[in-house]
Amino acid sequence: MQAANPPSSPWERLTAQPPLMWFSLFCLAGIVLGKSVSLPWWVWAVLALAFIALAILGRIAQRSSFLPGSFSFAPAWLRASLQPFPFLLASALLLGAARFQLSVPSFDAFHAAFYNDREYDLLVTGFLTEPADYRDSYTNLRVQVEKVDTGDGDLEVHGLVLVRVSNNQIFEYGQRIRLRGRLQTPPENEDFSYREYLAAQGIHSYMSSASVTILPGYAGNPVFRVLYAFKERSLENIHRLFPDPESSLLAGILLGVDTGLTRELQEAFKNTGTAHIIAISGFNISIIAALFVEFFSRFLGERRGRLFAILGIALYTFLVGADAAVVRAAIMGTLALLARQVGRRQVALNTLLAVALIMCLVNPRYIWDVGFQLSFFATLGLILYAEPFSEFANRIITRRLPDSTGEKAAKLFSEFVLLTLAAQLTTIPIMAYHFQRISLVSFIANPFILPAQPAVMILGGLAVLLSHVWFALGQLAAWVAWPFVVYTIRVVELFDRVPHGTLFLGEFSGWFVILSYATLFSATFFISQGGGLGWSNFKDRIRSLGQKAGLVGAGGAMVLLLIALLLVWRAAVAIPDGLLHVTFLDIGSADGILIRTPSGRTILINGGESVTALSDELGRRISSFDRRLDWLIVASTIEEQVAALPRVLERYPPDKALWSGNRQASFSSRFLNEYLSLKGIPITEAKKDQVLDLGDGATLTVLSTSPRGAVLLLEYGNFRAMLPVGMSFDALDELGYGENIAPVSILLLADSGYAASNPEDWVVNLNPEVVVLSVGAANENGLPDDDTLEIVKDYALLRTDWNGWIEIATNGAQMWVNVERTTTPAP
């Protein structure tokens, strides 16, 4: 039998690719078409059936010479034109469009979205489908609606609602709740469609503000209730085991909870192109998969090792909650691993497209999800380019180095540089489109960061697991893992400071993205057919952990040295140096003051409303081995001054508390008072002229008290800092506008520079050497007032919105000022 001639032209080679790949591509394109062209689903289905009929007819026409009678009349030109394959692709396109239209919900009276945008409050009853998403000043709840009451009694309805409530309650998965508020259609604008973002998750209604009542009983899946409870407990343990920002980074890496990172740190990860390590993604899963394969293959053999690795990934996926994003990441990461293990790109490519199609058939809106797009294209990059890049590097490096050294160097270079390059190459257009920036330092930053990530994930995960068994054992493992997490953050922050390290693009056209991918994949196809980079099968499996450690050792000594230096630096920050340190924390438009005495005692005054900002600031300054505060001073009880404290004090508990102000002044002050009482922390009521001995000759004097709080004076030798955190008009009168107080070294402006709280006589009489203003950037109340700035224009002024954190160190005779940023915005 004569063998079939292989395809000779590029077009023939292109169309010779397996039909599954083309069918998947056209069906995915059809989903996009279905959103763009709004026709009833049955119209698309009828058109698809017509093309399927033409495909069948074409197949019959091709075989007519072998069929009797009625089909033999078909002329040759008709048999040549009725190729079945194009008709099947057209039907796939139309079926994709039909599937999208079928996914568009019908908002009848039995759907929650039917009640959107009413001009009155509704009573909505349902249960939580996910754990609560706690933010700084609010909590997001995802609620499966069961009943809606418009005033005429409960009506049975269905649908998901995203609800924003105050952050003063604790919620659990499956809890039944009753909400009062107005249902709204999620907003959208030119820059971002929150409506589309939520619609991809099946949510079409939104409550921007609601009161909530917890009802008895639970709903939902009991298995998921156990898994989510384990995840919540793990999150609590992470924050107990590690200080911030390390704990928040690990929460993102291990559990997919990245809300604890400050906005500045998240921007640093984005600017350096390393944001892929923060949340659970295909990248994280690929690391876990590789480690599982190495471990299990060592004891069970390669084939069984891969099987157990997949089971391990599945277990990990369920342990962290198994939400849609994590499941997608697990599938994509596993596919990337299998592609490298099997070494057959065509099989992996077909499988990737088929899996993507299945996901999008389940939920067609996934195709517009940023996480799905990044996971898909990163996995695609690994499938297409990881092997040829590695082979190319191996050929170049081994020519210039001895055999053993060259091979090790090539593998090290491939593991930590080329694999990242392969994934980034296919995600750059997506990143540019969605985030409007391209990191120019990412290809340098990633090789520095990636070698530490297996240690971060393994040791960090081990610490969390052990903490469930015996917390002390988990803490021991956490101390071993902590340096690698510190290293990751510090390197990211270092590269973020590189001038012009990020190219900001502004608005990016979707057509340019399409053109970019068309160019990239066309070039890839023609190069591969021509053998440009030598696309041979991938034969070598990932080296064992011991070998990897040996490879890292060749160039990783520098990494370990940097980690050691960072450890020394981090420890030195918390070691007493014989000076009194007063740090005005950058926590927004509120006061957060950390005092460290010459002998190392720590005192926190207030803390603001941002949990992430306060926890991050404290974590960078308090010893990781002793995270207790000696004193908590509550000097103002208004909401924005104390809202962050209850959750942060779980991580940095105080031994004692000094309280001034009305405990019922705000919800957060009531909650804080209840928290301190529940934890058995002694609370002392502040009184006028009370002196708190901080040790080493440092004292904190309560000059005045009122329902608003207290005015405090910190003294150490000749150093004097006026801290009017709870300033009131009565306090100004009582203190004679500062006439009876000697000049001070430091004056903190009260109430973020509110003019009435900072009269000219007060500032002039105190005659400070340095004026400190704690205020957030673009304050919504327009603070600081212009009148206040006019009063202090002749004084040395430091502002947290300009300078970041502000640290004053003194030996009682001299003082030294250190700030986070020295740049001042142009007026």
Commentary on this structure:
There is one protein chain. The chain contains 29 helices and 25 strands. It has 827 residues and is an alpha/beta fold. It has four domains: 10-103, no CATH class; 112-220, OB fold (Dihydrolipoamide Acetyltransferase, E2P) (Beta Barrel), CATH 2.40.50.140; 229-534, no CATH class; 575-819, 4-Layer Sandwich (Metallo-beta-lactamase, Chain A). Strands 1, 2, 3, 4, 5, 6, 7 and 8 form an eight-stranded mixed β-sheet that branches. The chain has an eight-stranded mixed β-sheet with strand order 16-15-14-13-12-11-24-25, with no helix packed on it. A seven-stranded mixed β-sheet has the order 17-18-19-20-21-22-23.
List keywords for this structure.
eight-stranded mixed sheet; alpha/beta; 4 domains; OB fold (Dihydrolipoamide Acetyltransferase, E2P); 827 residues; 29 helices
